[in-house]
Amino acid sequence: MTRKFAALAILLLATACVPSIVATPPQEPIQVGFYSVTPQVEWNRPMMTASEIWTVDGYALQSLRFLDVADGQTLSGREDPDDKAPVFRRTMLPNEIQEFIVETLAAGGWANVKPKGLKPAKFGGLPGFRFAFGMLSDDGLEYDGVVLGTVREDTLHIIMYMGTRLHYYPKYAKDVEKLFKSIRT
Amino acid sequence: MIGMRAPAFAAVLLLAGACTTTPPEPIADLKPGERPALGTDEAGLWMQMDAVEESLSTSGRIVTDPALNAYVRTVTCRLSAEYCKDMRLYIVQTPHFNASMAPNGTMQVWTGTLLRVQNEAQLAYVLGHEMGHYIRRHSVQRWRSIRNKTDSMAFFTVTTRMAGLGFMGDLADMAAMASVMAFSRDHERESDDIGFDLMVQAGYAAGEAPKIWVALEEERKAAGAENPSLFLSSHPPTEERLATLQARASAHTGKGKFGNKSFVTAVRRYRTDWLRDEVRKRDFEGTKVLLANLQKAGYPAGEIHFFEGELYRLRGDDGDIKLAISAYRKALGSKGAPAETHRALGVMYWKSDQPKQARKSFRAYLAAAPKAEDRAMIKSYIQQLK
Fold it and tell me: In chain A, what are the domains?
């Protein structure tokens, strides 16, 4: 019994010692899956979740998401037993991947998701694609976003930056462009 | 996707449970311009729906185009100039068939409805049916009936939770809330009658009223039980109701107008977007029935075949690439195929190892859509295929 309590206490202390969110140090490479990025500013990076979603001012205002999606999975990395949700297929062309992302956003409650400017782009040294998009939130707030992605070993890797069209998206848009260029694989 | 969510489902259960046992209490029709007296249960009901309407009005899914709103509003006012002043119309971009009327006059018409009704006469019937719920105050009748028979606190918990939600993801809840309040067969019969009378008085062709139910029922059967329509869940078109409507339509001797041209003019520019939303539901069988109905109704064959191809492309089962190619080719051989048909065909050719055909299709796409947002990517495809 005493041993159990001791183990529990250690667990609790260990958890308490790890901050749930850390600030990314600017100008220092951070490993995100198989690649690294070098942020220009400090981002808040949650450490206790499986997904990498960063923000500076708050998730509702702007976010930077690093997503890895295996063949047959939804954007959130899950299977789709009902066959109703958009899923990623390894044979998809960039147009289809764009459609998959747009559909996922729309299914998630975003309205009027309009992609623009799909074009080839480098993801580190890998061939990839990028596009921008605009959309409306549930309560009619305008958002902008940009996606950079690549498919490597049948897995889709994307970095998606989005934020409110007024102020919070443009606030770090240039820093995100530099972060895109900093990708090292 | 917007579906029947837990709170709405709970409300439906509560209401459905009640409606089988309690006949609705007689109540005077709402007069034009009338608001319930303060301090009454009806006023409380209106207040709750006012809160729901407030969040609905700022939603990103509301179609704000003045021309489309003016058109649907004009049809509403043609049915009843007196009552239309009391109704606020919200066209909601959602690919399901649904229309609802809240007790305070908040009328929702989903774009899936505008895609499915085939002329102004059918739209008038749907709008008239919803007006019937408002005029007859079915919501308050249902509320009183439920209050007498069920745990009113439980009901209030559900309704208050819905009223306080204030987000778009639960449009279904809002619509269900609005519509389930009028969810007894007697009320539906009454609204059928009112809708029919209003459309006929406004000069529309009576025979169009039952057609929308028949088409919806076909779709529902094809879609199967796992894809219930929200509207049909709250407005079950029983055989008896359909037969009554058909009998009334047959007995009507006047000719009436269909309003084909005015309807098509109003919705034409949105049709492709609504069909795109529709195929993305991935309700393969139901959408196939809808496409067949739209083709019969005179939708451009090119557009219909393109979306048939899209259904196969998105499903991606064995053999679907061939079926998609065949549908896209049919589309391009018909009138009204959108430019993206060439692009979709190019993608399918590429995937079936036909690079020459793929290149040709991508070039055709760029020629048909010189300002396409994905121009740079398509050019890179053409390069890769060389």
Answer: 20-181 (3.40.1000.10)
